[in-house]
Structures are given as structure tokens and as C-alpha cells.
Amino acid sequence: LKVEALEKLSKVSIKEELQELRVKYLGKKGPLTEILRGMGSLSAEERPLIGQVANDVRESIEQLVNEKLAYYEQQDTENRLRSETIDVTLAGRPSSQGAVHPLNKIVQEIEDIFIGMGYSIVEGPEVEQDYYNFEALNLPKDHPARDMQDSFYITEELLLRTQTSPIQVRTMEKMKGQPIKIISPGKVYRRDDDDVTHSHQFTQIEGLVVGRDIRMSDLKGTLLQFVQQLYGPDSQIRMRPSFFPFTEPSVELDVSCYYCKGAGCRTCKNTGWIEILGAGMVHPRVLEMAGYDPKEWSGFAFGMGPERVAMLKYGIDDIRHFYTNDVRFLNQFVHL
Ligand code: PHE
After folding, report:
1. pLDDT, tens only, 159-190
2. Distance from the CA of 206 to the center of ligand 1, in angstroms?
3. What is the ipTM, given to two decimal places?
């Protein structure tokens, strides 16, 4: 039995076979168990002899089985280690990374330019009182200039702000009697049909400076500095007379269209100039209503649409690209 078992065991080549043989020789129904169970019927002299031999045989078989088991276990571990090794030289899967939206980027860029000139940033509510959005900006209830900005009214006295100019008034009320130098970025809403240049919701950045001796030349110098930082040091500006109820005089500001000189320029239609913002000297009535004596104080204000600024800077042909979040559009601005 011993010889047979050891021979079979030594020929074993897979773990399963080893288990089978172990059960066969050492299991409850195996020959050794049977012999040991039959000990009771043996004589007292035979018992230790047979017992000795049977135990001997069992020990030899167990020893070989255990050796083999250990061998297989080691093999298993080695296999597992081998299959789980990581190839550090393998090329990685690219992970997609988010980026700042081009509109936020241009807003930040504009903010940085003005922060560099000593301005602070002030925000205000998007749901605004008629008083701040219109009345305190010299646009009384039935003023025809309200037609310039079709509005979304919530109640008779509340609307979605059509411009960031109400922040001018709110800031002046708060700062009463102190100089002001702020810009206010934010969303604005108008009842426009959406097309390539119009959106019912867009962004504005308003600027306001109030002081003792603020002049039109300060406005011009500020805007020239801003434009040259944003569009390049060779950029020129041009002011054209315009109208806003809250500024007097009012101007529209054109920037030289240096990036598309000559024929075929769609952005400036070959005029060499492109309008980017509205501005003017704060109307004395606006100063007065907010608690600044116009005999002592003067100021300038300007307002621009960052979408438009970005469209001109990057040659974007449809304002709706900013809101539809098509990654093919967005990806073009990742590295700017
Ligand atoms: N708020 C004006 C607009 O939306 C722009 C503007 C702001 C003009 C400040 C002059 C001064 O059209």
C-alpha cells in the first residue's frame, strides 16, 4: 500500500489529482482508516505491530502529501504575483481634464486688467427693482429710452436686470460721499430673440469711477489703457457721440480692427473700426439721486459685453456658442 501510494503521489502533476489521492489514501473511507478501525478485532500482540505499521504508512503518505501541497501553494503564489505585476512602461490612458469656460476666462482677463488699475469688483442682484435698473439711472417710468432694453418683468416693481448699471446706483448709495472705483460683472437679461449676435441672457461688465475731479480725459485714458492690454499695444480707440440716459455726454467706443486689415474682413466690414462698449460721464441727476452733490463730484461709467469682446478677440461668429457647451467649441480655448 505504501509503495503504491508513494509512487502514485510522486507522479502527481496537478493539484486536483493530489487532493484526490489524499482522500483516497488518508480519507475516512480509505484503506488506512479501515485498518485502524479494524484494530479492535486483533489480538493484543498483533495490535501494536499493526498499529505501528499503519501509522508509519500514514505518516509517510501525509509527509509526501504535505510536501507536494506546499509546492503547489508556492506555485500558486508565484503565478499570482506574476499575473498581477504592473507594467510601468505601458502608455497611460489619457484622462480628460476640465478647463475654464472661454466666457469666464475673458471676464477674468478683463477683471485682472482693471484690478491692475486699482479697481475693486462689486456684484449685485440679478432680480432687480425697477428703481435701480431704470428710475435711479434717469429712466423714469414712461421714458421712451426704456424701449432700448426690452425687459422681463416679474412684478410691476421687480424685473430681471437688463444691465449691470443698477450696481452703480447701489454702490453710490452705500459709499455716499466717498470716492468710488469699481467694476461689476454679471448676467443680464433682455427680451430679445436669440440669433448670432443676440441672446436673451448675456454678460455685462460695468465700470464706475466717482471722484472730486474726474474728467472725460480720464475716461479716455482708462479705456485706451484697457484696450491696449486686451487687444495689444498697437490698438487705437475712437469715441463717437451716443446716448445713454444715465451719462452725459455719452460715447460709444470703437477699437481699431488691426487684426483684419484690408478686404474680406467681416468683423469690421472693412471700416477698420469695431464698436466694443458704451460709456460717458455720469449724469448729474444720477449722482444727485444717489446722494452725491454734482457740484462737488463727477464720474465716468462704461459698460461692455464680454461675449462681444471675446467674439472680436477670437473671431467667434455666433454668440450662442458660449451657452450651448459644445466641447468642440470649448476645446479650442483650453490652452489660451
Ligand atoms: N448699461 C449700458 C447698456 O447696457 C451700457 C453703459 C454702461 C453705457 C455705462 C454707459 C455707461 O447699454
Report:
1. 999 999 999 999 999 998 899 999 999 999 99
2. 7
3. 0.97
Whose alpha carbon is nearest atom 9 of ligand 1? 302
Residue of 151, 171, 206, 309 with the most ligand 1 atoms within 8 Å of its CB, for mutation:
206
* 296 labeled part of a ligand binding site: no
Task: Name the region of 325 (left: φ>0; alpha: ψ -120 to 50; beta: rest).
Answer: left
Distance 247 CA to ligand 1 centre (A): 9
For atom 2 of ligand 1, the residue with the nearest CA is 303
Atom of ligand 1 nearest to the CA of 168: 9
What pairing do the DSSP bridges indicate for beta strands 120-121 and 237-244? unpaired
- As a whole number of angstroms, the distance between CA 192 and CA 262 comes to 33
Is the whole-model pTM more than 0.95? no
Residue 180 to residue 120: CA distance in whole angstroms: 9
**Residues contacting ligand 1 via CB (< 6 Å):** 163, 165, 206, 244, 247, 278-280, 301-303
Could you give the angle at the alpha carbon of 108 between the alpha carbons of 274 and 175, nearest 5°?
95
What is the model's pLDDT at position 253? 96
User: Rounded to 5 degrees, what angle do the CA atoms 267, 273, 274 make?
Assistant: 50
Between the CA of 155 and the centroid of ligand 1 the distance, in Å, is 24
Q: If we measure between CA atoms, which residue out of 184, 161, 162, 159 comes closest to residue 171? A: 184
Q: Reduced to 3 states, what is the DSSP secondary structure of residue 238?
A: strand
Q: What is the pLDDT of residues 15-50, one digit of tens each?
A: 788 888 888 888 888 888 888 788 788 888 888 888
Q: Sheet harboring 273-282: ordered strands across?
A: 120-121, 180-189, 201-211, 298-304, 273-282, 247-256, 237-244
Residue-level pLDDT at 22: 83
Amino acid at 323: Y
Q: Cell for 194?
A: 436669440
Distance CA 227, CA 237 (A): 8
Alpha carbon distance 57, 108 (integer Å): 87
Pocket residue to mutate for ligand 1, from 147, 163, 277, most atoms within 8 A of Cβ: 163
